[in-house]
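Q: Can I see a sequence and its folded structure?
A: Here is a first one.
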Amino acid sequence: MPYPDRAASMEEMMVKLEPNCIVENGSLSDCDFADADLSGATLTGCELRDVRFTGTCLQDARLTGCRFIRCRFANVDMRDALFANCSFVDDTGHVGAQFAFSRLEQARFSRSDLSFAKFDRSALFGVEFDACNMRGAAFHKADFSRLFGRKLVKTAATLRGCNLEFADLNGIRMPGCDLSGSNFREAVLFDADLEGADLRGCDLVLALTAGAKLARADLRDADLAGLNLREIASLEDMIVSADQQSPLLAAMGLEVYPG
């Protein structure tokens, strides 16, 4: 019996692109994902190059070791989806994925490369990024909050142990969120609302923090070299350790001498 040719194999893969489908080690770049329902799907070791996900449903999908090269996600439902050890950057490492007007509530990204990814006007309540490379990523009007009732608004998100070097988080609102162990070196945090956030062990060296709100934030063990408290919008009850006091005061132009 002859083996199926490449075209036949691709057609077979397209037939399998349906809810709860299982695809392993497939090249899915030629598949049409527009308005496709892949809820509960399991994709392992797949490559998707120059794919446009428009109106696609990936709710509860499980994707492991997949490569998304120059892909765009527009109006995509990614709620509760899991992306583990996935790459969203192109072959040169300079162009990331684009997420626009998409729903990423409760989505989880673990040890994935999201360098230069752009999150544009997307819903990210409860999203988790764990040990991800997000160097140069940009968040534009990304919403980490959800309205419960008429007046109760809650914010929830995790960016734990992530590399956000040079990332653009201008005006981001993440009060009370877990950002512990992340690298924000030279990141843009102008007017960011991080009140009550967990920033323990973070690297904030040369981060642009003018207008940022850090009241009640926990900054113990964080590298705060160059952080100017005079530029911070709020710092009431901000938590730091004793060994961080001297560099913070020095950054304000005060001369600190040992007692």
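Q: Show me another, different protein.
A: A second, unrelated one:
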Amino acid sequence: MTQPTLIRRAPGHLHTALNLAARTIPVLPLRAGKVPFGNCSVCRDNACGGRPNMKTPGPCHCPRPCHGWAAATSDPTVLRSREWEGLWREAAAVAYHPGGAGLIVVDLDDTDAVTWARRTLPPTKTVLTTRGEHWIYRGAMRSVNAVRAGVDIKSTMAYARWLGPGTGTMTDVPDTVRALAMKKPSTVRPASRAITVPTQVGGGECRHRTPAYLERGIAMAEQRITQASSAVHATVYRTFLAVLSAHGRCGCLTDAHVGRLFAAAQVRGEGARHCTDAWTNARTALGM
């Protein structure tokens, strides 16, 4: 049986998914509320870390699709498999992994954001959403939320809802969009000022104020998070705890240092809320 025949006989959302997969666009089912189906118990809260290095889309070694964007696949055999059959029956929509397809979605969430884009960005393929528009460019880059009011960038390690082919001609991603991702996202900001905690007992000059000492500690923490191949959520918490234990009681940590740690965690799939919770829990555990 040829693939076109398989596609024609597929019901509903699976039919859409197979059509996209035939164009090498990795797809996954979404349940009501535009969210992926829940992780299996083995991988709850991304405990297993997903696929090695989380660099490519695809399911982890579990009986059901896990990890949101990382479950996306363009393999029709997987899409039609018994493990996915029930998900397609329950699915409310189809999503795709833009980065896996070599695409960047500028998600404009309201009319003000759309107006800004029309004044600022070069035209490209556009897709209407329930509240705004998706502007789709060729390319790939890291995904960043809230690069400005009502604007998210979705590409690698993210998913976007499939809302149709859109209109217009797709163009290459402009430097304007890449520059947006270089700005510190507001969702990553853990505090509005430098972190202040009790000084060390005994007083004296804080050794952590030596720039090289502090920089080495932050760099090692970033590396530990980035290289985590499993238990990412737990690794982030333990790393935050270690940083605060070593550098937190002298007041030398700033927003820039904490922002670097949050950014490293988000690259590994942690959400901004999870980062904030982990940081707060670490401070509480240390009595800060």
